């Protein structure tokens, strides 16, 4: 009689099916030399008992945990959260399970602990969503015997790298403002220690120089309060700035609020375009024109790369994903000052 007050184990399954525990193990791990009728009895016993095979124990037998790790930082942001959800779905479709460890990308000890946690559960591959060089260097040092995908790493020598074309997206955002007749266009950048901030600056500067306009860059971070503080101190009248390209939507939100409080109308006096298309950007006042990266596709492609390497030894190489522009009400034809 099985004690239902505890979790059933392999011996309970063997007893109910009338076989040895070695036979149950062979069925769980798709081993050979098991009759179909015996396999059916074992599977039926597992179903009756609600037995779920232990992944770690199974890995000892098969050397396959069917687990992919995700090392991630800054999950509060729209991009990493969207990528993780897509990765988990893609892993399940491929017969794998994704498990994540959240780390502080600026703390070497935190990164090491996250990697150790993932290695203890027997991951077969790793996806890294930590857009700072510290974390990439730590992973390169500590993870050497399993495939790794780096997302948006600037190091083009990586064998496995899924990339968002931040430079092309920033160039398109700036070209949109130029097409509306703006000549004095400011870029409020993200922190230069993040991989995606410098290419957005480059894309902006390329578009400005191609139009024979002078680039102007202020470095910020990714937060609403920083956008607000910058907006409070901008000298729009003196500088004649009529448009701002913010490196992400949260910066754009802070900028819009500060400028409106100072009596500047958006977009009548100053047009603002963001980047990321966070879900709430369509409900800003006014609704925000922005660049929409396909974060879900980026996550899917990165997981597809890992699974391809694990299943066939060949990684599927993906193209850089270019964000699309979403035109709303925060950009308009340049005013005549």
Write the layout of secondary structure elements.
Blueprint: H1 10-17, H2 21-28, H3 36-49, H4 55-62, E1 67-72, H5 78-93, E2 97-102, H6 108-120, E3 125-129, H7 133-142, E4 148-151, E5 161-162, H8 166-179, E6 185-189, H9 197-210, E7 216-219, H10 224-233, H11 236-239, E8 243-246, H12 249-261, E9 271-275, E10 289-292, H13 295-312, E11 324-326
Parallel strand pairs: 1-2, 1-3, 3-4, 4-5, 6-7, 6-8, 8-9, 9-10
Antiparallel strand pairs: 10-11
Helix pairs in contact: 1-2, 1-3, 5-13, 6-7, 8-9, 10-12
What does the model show?
- This protein is α/β, with parallel strands linked by helices.
- It has 3 domains: 10-53, 434 Repressor (Amino-terminal Domain); 67-164 and 295-321, Response regulator (Rossmann fold); 166-293, Rossmann fold (3-Layer(aba) Sandwich).
- It has 13 helices and 11 strands.
- It has a 6-stranded mixed β-sheet, with helices on both faces. A 5-stranded parallel β-sheet has the order 2-1-3-4-5, with helices on both faces.
- Strand 6 (185-189), helix 9 (197-210) and strand 7 form a beta-alpha-beta unit.
- The longest helix is centred in the C-terminal third of the chain and has 18 residues, at 295-312.
- The mean pLDDT is 87.
Can you summarize this structure?
The chain contains 13 helices and eleven strands. The chain is an alpha/beta fold.
């Amino acid at each position: 009689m099985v004690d239902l007050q505890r979790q059933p184990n392999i011996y309970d399954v063997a007893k109910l099916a009338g076989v040895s525990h070695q036979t149950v193990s062979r069925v769980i791990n798709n081993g050979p030399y098991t009759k179909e009728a015996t396999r059916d009895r074992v599977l039926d016993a597992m179903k009756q008992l609600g037995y779920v095979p232990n992944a770690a124990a199974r890995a000892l037998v098969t050397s396959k945990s069917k687990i992919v790790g995700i090392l991630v930082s800054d999950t509060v942001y729209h991009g990493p959260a969207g990528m993780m959800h897509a990765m988990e779905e893609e892993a399940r479709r491929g017969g794998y399970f994704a498990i994540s460890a959240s780390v502080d990308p600026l703390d070497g000890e935190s990164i090491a602990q996250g990697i150790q946690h993932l290695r203890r559960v027997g991951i077969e591959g790793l996806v890294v969503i930590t857009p700072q060089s510290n974390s990439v260097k730590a992973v390169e040092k500590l993870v050497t015997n399993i495939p790794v995908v780096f997302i948006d790493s600037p190091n083009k020598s990586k064998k496995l790298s899924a990339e968002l074309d931040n430079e092309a997206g920033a160039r398109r955002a700036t070209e949109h403002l130029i097409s509306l007749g703006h000549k004095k266009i400011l870029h409020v950048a993200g922190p230069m220690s993040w991989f995606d901030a410098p290419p957005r600056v480059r894309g902006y500067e390329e578009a400005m120089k191609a139009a024979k306009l002078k680039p102007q860059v202020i470095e910020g971070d990714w937060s609403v309060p920083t956008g607000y503080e910058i907006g409070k101190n901008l000298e729009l009248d003196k500088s004649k700035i009529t448009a701002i390209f913010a490196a992400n939507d949260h910066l754009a939100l802070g900028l819009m609020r500060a400028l409106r409080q100072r009596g500047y109308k958006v977009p009548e006096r100053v047009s603002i375009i963001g980047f990321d298309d966070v879900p709430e950007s369509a409900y800003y006042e006014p609704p925000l024109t922005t660049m929409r990266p396909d974060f879900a596709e980026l996550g899917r492609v990165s997981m597809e790369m890992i699974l391809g390497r694990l299943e066939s030894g060949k990684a599927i190489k993906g193209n850089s994903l270019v964000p699309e522009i979403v035109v709303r009400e925060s950009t308009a034809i340049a005013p005549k000052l």
